[in-house]
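Before going further, learn to read the protein records used in this course. A complete example follows; check for yourself that the lines match position by position.
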Amino acid sequence: MYTKSLFAVTLLAFIALLTCAPTSAQVLVRDIPAPSISSTSLTFDGEYFWSGDNNSNRLIMFSPVDGSIVDTVFSPVNGSDGLAYDGDYLWTISGASARRQIYKIDPLSGALLDSIPDPAQSNAGGLSVDGTDFWVGRNFPTNKFLRIAQSDGALLDSVNAPGNQIRGVAYNNGMIWATSVNTDGDFVYWVNAATGAVQWQFELPEHVSLPDRRLRGVALVDGYLWLVAYAQNSNSNRVLQYDVSNAVQPDIVLDTTPYSFGECVIGHPLTWELAGLNAGNAILSLDSIYFRDGTDFFVTSPPSFPFEVAGETDFTIVVQFGPQISGDKVDTLVVESNDPDEGLLMIRVTGEAFPDEGQISLNPVSVDFGDIWVPNPTTSTTSNLEISNFGHGELTISSIEITSGIDFRIDPITLPVTIPASEFATVRLWFEPDVAGNYGGVLSILSNDPDQPQVNVVLTGRAFVADFEEGTTVWTYHDPSDNFDVGINGITAVNDANGDGIHDVVATTESGLTVCLNGASSGTADTLWTYNSRVVPSHSGMVFYDRALATIDDITGDGVQDVLIGTTGNSQSVYALSGATGEELWMFDTDWWGDGGWVNDVEGFVDINGDFITDVLACGSGDGSNGSRRVFALSGDNGELLWEGPAYTSFYSLTPISDVSGDGVDDVVGGTTTWVVGIDGATGGQRWQTNIGGSSPVFDLERMGNANPQTNNTEDVAVASAYLGVYVIDGGTGQQLWLQEIGSSFVYELTIIPDISGDDVSEVVVGTTSGRVICYDGAQGFEIWNQIADPDDPRNVLAMTTVPDVTGDHIADIVCGSLSNKLIVMSGWDGDHYFDTFGQGVTSPVDAVGILPDIDGSNAFEILMGNREGWVDCVSGGEIIISTAEPVPVPTTFAMRPAYPNPFNPSTSLSFTLPGISDVQANVYDVNGRLVRELLGSTLQPGEHSVQWDGRNNHGQATATGVYFVRLQTSFGTKTQKLLLLK
């Protein structure tokens, strides 16, 4: 029975330990019910446990497997504060003050056989056998371990006990296990019986099923510690079994999983730090650590052996992989220690050795530039060549040059170039032909790769004669992002970022990219640089409005215009980027004002602070009462705040205007939801405000020169008030000069074109949500022309700009982006449709338009478009033929020449001159003043014109012989001439 029960307990404990990592010196193996709700003392008779109550005379035998009661005997006294088994008999200490004795009891009958004095005087806390003697725990007046003679109770020794109140004692081989109820928790102590020194201790943790237990009796059985956990608030005492083997011996914990160093370059050894732990409480001696072979792997720490590790202490074994010859390496690390449960610990270690040299690899191995058009100013296309190092040492490029093919070149590169293992360098190659034909060349690269000291890259390309009709796509770009929306929200030209003499293009996308594209590209655009404003998730943002992208006069001194962007999202900042490289020059975060706000507009301004660098204007919305809801000026040099204007609900747009305050610094006008505000450009102070009606945001306003030159000489502003209409406002005073309501449509886009009405005042052109584009006289506000941008699908005009003449009439023209997915170009003279295109990519609404100075030698600007699918198209503006003939001077007066012939039959011709654009009416009347024929009714340009009369009336009937009068009415006056028809 004894062997079977104890084996069952030990087996269960062993299985439990296999599933538990030995990270502490004590491991709870199991708990079983105590035999009584008042069980306190505990001892083991070799087969079963015995426990005594604290308030009865029962001594109960129970199973160590499940706590079931096997037998019960009754002692002559109540209470048991300590219980021991001497191999034959039970000994118990009564807690009763009247019974200060230790009683010897027959375990079979409960008969009292003997007694000796209780040295604890009814303050006992545990009893344990030490050969022929006893150890008694005393908890009052002080904690003591008392050793007494079993024969007569004589005091043999006294040792101080730890804790506040000893409750259980178990003696084993010169050591005492004791339980103590302390004010700061219940503890188990392992104590040197000779000195009382605590060798180790642990606090009874709060097990899920035992939240309110207090420790009582303790017994040590076959290396396992058994404790009575006394319930304070319930009737469910438990007996806990702990494995405390680690408390009395060392226990090495080491991961023996095979380890691979991976790749190692000869001469550059690798190090592995193998972490270990002595989970036991005794000193661990690392007697020897070595490799069986020892030619490629070495132990560098510990430096000598044996090496001692204190209990519950980490240690580190440092191993070095330092091969001398290439190849696969394998060895076994052996660890010898004094852990009695472990033999030799062995770990398989591997690695791969490579020589210290680079290995060149190219991508692509040959470069075909495809087709490019000529002639050019300086057209080109580009390709990137990646030079990778697939070796394990450094790769050094000593030379890289075009050895044949004068129409190919490389960007300047500083030699030598050192490429670390598994990394690469990028070289940009250019193809720049100037005549049509097939081209070839060779790029040669010299390096320290011993196997390929020289590699050659074959270069090819073809050039064809450019003959782009208007509306033809010259090149395209597509945003490669796949994590965000990719719509193009802004696009503009920048003055030559790559040094080829051709303007380049900057575009912004909803994915957070700002990209600079080679303006002289062919087919697929060459990306010169990319900046990503979404790199940092906590400061991620993008350009939302086309007006939040702008160029600024060179602020870095490299001769290239730089780039400004204003973002939304989490960043809500103004960024200055190098136009040459895309490097972030500075950033201003609008959380300068509370929570900040969207940046809706950015502009290059003038030098405010006298450092000879152009400064920056921006405006924003407010995310809170202290947001960036104002116009503000920043230093172009470093982004520092120079001034802030007055705060309104939100500023959606701004424009600089020429100085109206007389201080020599240009001034500023901004648009809010309700107001247009004039701001001093030097200080940010408010000069005036004009109310344009509630809840009608000013999404666009543009400077337009002087709209009322007869009154003053200050610059004025055209304003697109989204829901109310179009205003022109005096830039000096804020006075409204004129207003044109749009009706049921809304107006979000506005642009300015040079004068076409002959009054030397620029005209105002707006795009509406009904798809109409309307041109208004800038001085008086009357409608000059009104056209639907896309008659096939009249939908919102989403973007608009002015382009210098592309139709050949010497009048600036209009570029529109539409919700109908088209780019549309219209005549600035009368709004007639010139061309439209969907572009070459996936069609979608066109939110961004721009213009690019002529890149194909056609004398016409190219047109830029960006849509919501992330496509940018550069579209040809067509060709303008420049005449070499002497220009015909524009007449300076209105005149009507004599009709010829006169008298006439059957027709006559009348010539006249106009000094400016004018509505013209030419009618024929009889001698009674009755209308006979309407000859002309249209708007004409400045110059010489003629009109014919064939002698017929408005019904096509021939008129009779007689006298008639022709009257010519213009904005410059009216003239009349007599005609004589003879038959």
About this structure: The helical segments are 2-18, 245-248.
